[in-house]
Amino acid sequence: MKKKAVISLRKVWKIYKMGSATVNALRGVTLDVWQGEFVAIIGPSGSGKSTLMNLVGALDKPSRGHIFLDGKDISLMEESDLAQIRGQKIGFIFQQFNLLPALSATGNVGLPMIFQGIPEAKRVERATELLNSVNLGERLNHKPNELSGGQQQRVAIARALANEPEMLLADEPTGNLDSKTGGEIMSMLEDLHTKKGRTIVLVTHDIHLVKHAERVIYLKDGQIEKVVKNHKRGHKHA
Amino acid sequence: MIKDYVYFAFLNFSARKLRTFLTVLGIIIGIAAVVGLISIGEGLQETINEQFRALGGDKLIVTPKGGGFAIGAPSGSADLTKDDLDVVRKSRGMDKAGGMIFKLGQVTYGDERKTPFVSGIPQDETKDIFSDIQTFSIVEGRDLMDGDKYSAVVGILLYEGEYFDKSVKIRDRLTIEGQEFKVVGVLGRIGNPQDDSQILIPLEAAREIFDEPEKLDFIMGQVRPGFTPSDVADSVTRDLRKFRDVDEDEEDFDVQTFEQILETFSDIFSVVQAILIGIAAISLLVGGIGIMNTMYTSVLQRTNEIGLMKSIGARNSDIALLFVIESGFLGLAGGIIGLIIGASMGLLVEFGASQVGLPFNTHLSFTLLVGSLLFSFVTGAVAGVAPAISASKLKPVEALRYE
Fold this sequence. Notes:
The complex is a heterodimer of chains A (238) and B (403).
Chain A: E1 5-18, E2 21-34, E3 38-42, H1 49-56, E4 64-69, E5 72-73, H2 79-89, E6 90-93, H3 105-114, H4 120-133, H5 149-160, E7 167-171, H6 179-194, E8 199-204, E9 215-220, E10 223-229
Parallel strand pairs in A: 3-8, 3-9, 6-7, 7-8
Antiparallel strand pairs in A: 1-2, 1-4, 4-5, 9-10
Helix pairs in contact in A: 3-4, 3-5, 4-5, 5-6
Chain B: H1 2-15, H2 17-56, E1 59-64, E2 80-81, H3 82-90, E3 94-104, E4 107-109, E5 112-114, E6 117-121, H4 127-133, E7 138-141, E8 151-154, H5 156-159, E9 173-176, E10 179-187, H6 193-196, E11 199-202, H7 203-210, E12 215-216, E13 218-223, H8 229-244, E14 253-257, H9 258-301, H10 303-311, H11 316-355, H12 366-392, H13 396-401
Parallel strand pairs in B: 6-11, 8-10
Antiparallel strand pairs in B: 1-13, 1-14, 2-12, 3-6, 3-13, 4-5, 4-9, 7-10, 8-11, 9-10
């Protein structure tokens, strides 16, 4: 079976100007995320991990090099088109959950669908279905401040799945959770990968989390230091 | 989608009720002032128009130059005479015309002597022109009629004993300029002391006692049906100019239609209203700036939310629209509250007026209603444009990281 890349980075540089100094956050990174794989990007702070995550998530454009999302070069796209594509192809899971406090769980899960112009009835139906799948069927109308951290992150996972994205991008998803709850979230992500065949990109500094991934990319000083295949986890796509 | 944005706006308002209220206060005051002033003003103007029309839409008045309507001609100005009346009567489009005398007279009642206004009213077929125009009603006794000579109708203050020490009753006798008159009727209250203390007598009697066989203080004419009062006024002016041998723009007389009087009144009214509305507009401007300020604050406070929305697919235009709708509805909320307050002000004035017996209805037109709401929404939306643009231009990466 031919492997299909969800996102491909080719010799990507990201250069920040801090006053008169320039910082090369990424230096010629080439990377493919294959459909259906679970890849972890790990590195200490300052390694360019966040920058890489922003680029993989199409939140930012490279200074040099090319990034192809679904075959299209995002460095050539307008911000609005990028937003549209982001909404369709990528589901974000953040360390801070980033739920809108005024909206219920259903409202938060429905939010990405609003920007895709999906009618309300369908949004509510899909949001309910997704919240059921993350075991929050009893919490549909709760506001974020009425939910525990783990529950909030599950709402965020449901939200990330709202538009059936090609890739889930999780940025330190357990960073704000205790280890037990964090473990639950990680096994939920693993289930999404093994049982539903979701493509997952996990960005973390926590070495303990990478055991869930099939492939681990070690980042250091803005470059890929090494790529390790996790044979215990490796299966159909590896 | 717009529906969702409106819903988001209301969620934000309810999360920050006090700030929302303070923000829209300027709009509330502005709209309340505009709605109140316009509805009261339009109502007032309508009432006045109606009363004028009822009185004399088809009438015109000729007075000596400098002498105003309802005020006797100042001495020294050119007089009008019976001959002028004849000219007026023969003017094109004139149905009928009559003249009256209007003077301060020496009046003795019992031992008292005073100087009220005495009007000489014609008792021929032109009488009804005058009775139409003077909103006189007879509350006691009867009106003057054909055949009366030394009969008088007196103002209500005389009847009530507020003018002379002793009250004047029907069949009492008054001496005016040395001639004894019999009181036959009492006028209803007009509302000002001058009118309420006047005495009406037949024109013939007035000519005799004031020794004015020719002079008239004003001439009033009724326009023939089918003619426009202003056209007839023009031909009267032309005819009188010729008869009195004066040049154009140097007339020593005035010809006025009620339309003109009404227009003059409307003009003054419009200016006053424009000034008041101008002041209200300043309040709306300040209100708009208040909304702008709040929206900028809101963009800062919600930078994180904006970043999140962008990361999950909101385009720049979605974010901009979200903020413009929110600020538009802030304006609209102010507009609705302002409208309610303004309309209540109008009703309060209406109630107050009815308590003192003035016929007056405030007029809240559909245009004013919809216009003020639309205007408040637009004011809010426009004030929100700049903050909305700055929100839409936030970079998702930076916005997400903003603390």
